[in-house]
Design goal:
The chain has 430 residues and is α/β, with parallel strands linked by helices. The protein has a single domain, classed as Alpha-Beta Barrel (TIM Barrel), CATH 3.20.20. 40% of the residues lie in helices and 18% in strands. It contains 14 helices and 14 strands. The strands form four sheets. Strands 2-3-4-5-6-7-9-10 form an eight-stranded parallel barrel, surrounded by six helices. Strands 1-13 form a two-stranded antiparallel sheet. It has a two-stranded antiparallel ribbon with strand order 8-14. Helix 7 packs parallel to helix 9. The chain starts with a strand and ends with a strand.
Length: 430
């Protein structure tokens, strides 16, 4: 008996981000944030997983685990350590890494910006700067010009809503600002940067003779649900939070259209600026006020986020109904420091995907390997592979073995479920 069989065209893999795994003091905004003492556990992103030096070992591990696809990022501060000065060594390094992935039969999805900026860019205002579009597109042109012949799929910007909210509203990420006006400026400049990058990548690869280019941005999508469905205040707050956090920025970047509260952006012609719908899905927010909340009695991960598998399909359907394109789940995973319930988490989310008719063609588990988890540092483990940060020893977790078996069987049998996924969650207060 099979618990579920995945659709034939669904490919499975994992995702990472450069700053979270590579290590090294590259002169990035997050290296600087650590030096300012802003990482909760005091861990240093200059250590991380030392992947920059160990990428061959890690690529072998990806292949051993059977990964079909791999979403990873390049580190802007390595590639352009000084404004306008590009590192041939860094570009050649990433090209070598991509060629090795392809040699191992793993298709890359390349992320160009994943939360981190070169410090020189941060110091001139980052994505608030009037020069942000010009500077970002120069960087994109350099990267795609160098690897565009061996990479066909791109994420321009990862989770623009999370970046803007944490960095410019709550101020817990660099540069640590707290200004709604700044959030709107960031959203507008992100729209310019994404639209410009979308056009540029297609143009560059077309000139190289390729017609298979796929470009989008990675969209962090949550389910916003009123705590009481009959309470008008809860309903209004849920609708507003959804609009401000994800609906407006999705419309602005996808179509270049006016969206409240971002508004119309000068010199942007409305159009279609995505080739696939990219969804990063983790959790649901239960809303009783103008703030995030968690449903009472719900299963929780180790960061206190609700585990809500049905939301991955709810989110995908919501976007597909509007944007009508193939769907990539570009991140989905959970913080489970002792690997006690990750197998069940993976099982339930993939089961939800298998049992719907949406055109979900890619699933990237977050994360391949335990890593530097932004302000949580090394204290929050999302990986299928355990890392001893002191020795950098890699050990495949039970959940990693389960995921490999899912890839091999393209589904989950009764035996596989009983062997791995028959686990218990921990629950919040009733």
């Amino acid at each position: 008996m099979a618990h579920f069989v995945l659709k034939k065209d669904l490919k499975l893999g994992v995702a990472t981000a450069a700053t979270q795994i590579e290590g090294g003091d590259t002169g990035s905004s997050w290296n600087d944030w650590y030096k300012k003492g802003r990482i909760k556990d005091g861990s240093n992103p200059a250590r991380a997983n030392d992947h920059y030096n160990r990428f061959r070992e890690d690529t072998d591990l990806l292949a051993f685990m059977g990964m079909e696809i791999y979403r990873f990022g390049v580190e802007w501060s390595r590639i352009e350590p000084e404004e306008g000065k590009f590192s041939q060594e860094a570009l050649s390094h990433y090209r070598e890494e991509i060629l090795l992935l392809r040699e191992r039969g793993i298709m890359p999805l390349l992320t160009l910006h994943h939360f981190t900026n070169p410090l020189w860019f941060e110091q001139i205002g980052g994505f608030e700067s009037a020069r942000a579009e010009e500077i970002f597109l120069r960087y994109v042109e350099k990267v795609v010009g160098f690897v565009g012949d061996i990479v066909s799929e791109y994420i321009t910007i990862n989770e623009p809503n999370v970046y803007a909210t944490n960095s410019y509203f709550f101020g817990v990420w660099p540069p640590g600002k707290s200004s709604f006006k700044s959030v709107i400026r960031i959203y507008r400049n992100f729209t310019r940067c994404h639209v410009g990058a979308y056009k540029l990548i297609h143009s560059l690869r077309s000139k190289m003779g390729f017609s298979d280019t796929q470009v989008s941005f990675a969209n962090h999508i949550r389910v916003f649900e009123p705590k009481c469905r009959f309470n008008p205040y809860h309903i209004i707050c849920a609708v507003l939070l959804r609009q401000l956090f994800q609906t407006a920025i999705t419309k602005s970047l996808s179509w270049g259209k006016k969206a409240f509260p971002i508004g119309k952006i000068k010199d942007i012609t409305p159009g279609k600026y995505y080739d696939f719908i990219s969804i990063n899905y983790y959790s649901r927010s239960t809303v009783a006020s103008f703030a995030d909340g968690v449903k009472r009695g719900a299963p929780l991960n180790d960061l206190g986020w609700e585990i809500y598998p049905a939301g991955i399909v709810e989110s995908a359907k919501m976007l597909y109904d509007l944007y009508k394109a193939p769907i990539y789940i570009t991140e989905n995973g959970t913080c489970d420091n002792e690997d006690k319930f990750r197998c069940r988490y993976i099982f339930e989310h993939l089961k939800a995907i298998a049992e719907n008719h949406l055109p979900i063609t890619r699933y990237y588990h977050w994360c391949f390997i335990d890593n530097f988890e932004w302000i949580e540092g090394e204290s929050a483990r999302f990986g299928l592979v355990h890392v001893d940060y002191e020795t950098q020893k890699r050990t495949i977790k039970r959940s990693g073995n389960f995921y490999t078996q899912i890839i091999r069987e393209h589904g989950v049998s009764e035996y596989l479920f009983n062997e791995y996924a028959n686990q218990e969650y921990k629950f919040g207060n009733d």
